[in-house]
Design goal:
It is a single chain. Helix 2 packs across helix 10, helix 5 crosses helix 6 and helix 5 packs across helix 10. It contains eleven helices and 15 strands. It has two domains: 125 residues, Leucine Dehydrogenase, chain A, domain 1 (Rossmann fold); 148 residues, NAD(P)-binding Rossmann-like Domain (Rossmann fold). The chain has 306 residues and is of the alpha/beta class. The radius of gyration is 19 Å and the shape is globular. Helix 6 links the parallel strand 9 and strand 10.
Length: 306
């Protein structure tokens, strides 16, 4: 998920270079979000509200980690006694070689967004896919088996996980869009083998012509790109291509209506941003870390009041 809301961050470069990294942290800092950029994430207030409600003696922070800093950052955080991590753009797939074990679901979804650290070993999970499914049910009572789905940006970590989750959930038909659709060939073959050919899967060029050709054939449009974080971003789909029976889920979470949402709403479609997905993937991460039910309503209040 992508956000347009600011938050304070710690730079991995400072953490790596410091001779006294503990001086950059609070004593309770044991959980973190790693990504680049992360200044717009609102995971920290959500998770910290949950930690406070559950009376757990920890703090959750955001760390800006460039791709070339990932290895050293992980080593440093393990050494400092961190217990859990969330992983976001652009590390969801790059993190895989550093993990000691990956859950079966994360392996199938092809990326990791949650890590539990136990005895200095890293265990990887993916809560994006299940969080997406729960969000659809909460927003519109939509179930995957009734949907023909178009995913914009299916080659990224979040898009890949959502595409795999759609197949896992038995959607009717799947269209995966990328500016370089040839890069999706292997993934489409893998998903087709899993579904034993029972679910039609199509690659689509993420261009005006490519999207226009498939829009009449889909029920749900999912934006898994970062386009929409800024109000000046280009419009991915023009209003005239939507119809009033369609749903648009933009995983960008923003303080304002995203350009894609505006386009869908103008045509009479239903549209929402990624706050509900962020809520449920975050709640599942909390459950993995602490093996207890997350305080969903407290987390919801922290997100929607931010």
């Amino acid at each position: 998920m992508f956000s347009s809301l600011p938050t304070s961050v710690l730079k991995a470069s400072d953490l790596i270079a410091s001779k006294d990294p503990l001086s950059l942290l609070q004593a309770e800092d044991r959980y973190a979000l790693l990504g680049f950029p992360v200044a717009h994430s609102i995971s920290s207030p959500m998770q910290n509200a949950a930690l406070q409600e559950a009376r757990l003696p920890y703090n959750y922070i955001s760390i800006e980690v460039r791709p070339e800093e990932l290895d050293l950052t992980l080593q440093k955080l393990v050494h400092l006694g961190f217990l859990g991590l969330n992983i976001t753009l652009p590390h969801k797939r790059a993190i895989l070689p550093y993990l000691h074990k990956v859950s079966d679901q994360a392996t199938f979804l092809g990326s990791v967004n949650t890590i539990s650290i136990r005895n200095e070993k890293l265990f990887g999970y993916n809560t994006d896919g299940p969080g997406f499914v729960t969000a659809l049910k909460e927003e519109w009572n939509l179930l995957l088996p009734s949907q023909r789905i178009l995913i914009l940006g299916a080659s990224g970590g979040a898009g890949r996980a959502i595409a795999a989750q759609c197949i896992l959930g038995g959607c009717l038909e799947l269209y995966v869009a990328s500016r370089t659709p040839e890069t999706l060939t292997a993934e489409v073959e893998r998903l087709s083998q899993f579904s034993k050919g029972t679910i039609p899967i199509h690659t689509v060029e993420l261009s005006d012509a490519g999207i226009a050709s498939v829009m009449p054939h889909v029920d749900l449009i999912v934006n898994a790109t970062s386009v929409g974080m800024s109000e000046n971003d280009p419009l991915l789909i023009s209003p005239h291509l939507f119809n009033e029976d369609q749903y648009c889920y933009d995983i960008v979470y923003s303080s304002t209506t995203t350009p894609l949402m505006k386009s869908a709403l103008q045509a009479g479609s239903q549209a929402t941003n990624g706050l509900s997905m962020l809520l449920y993937q975050g709640a599942l991460a909390f459950q993995i870390w602490f093996e207890q039910d997350p305080p969903i309503e407290i987390m919801r209040q922290a997100l929607f009041h931010k």
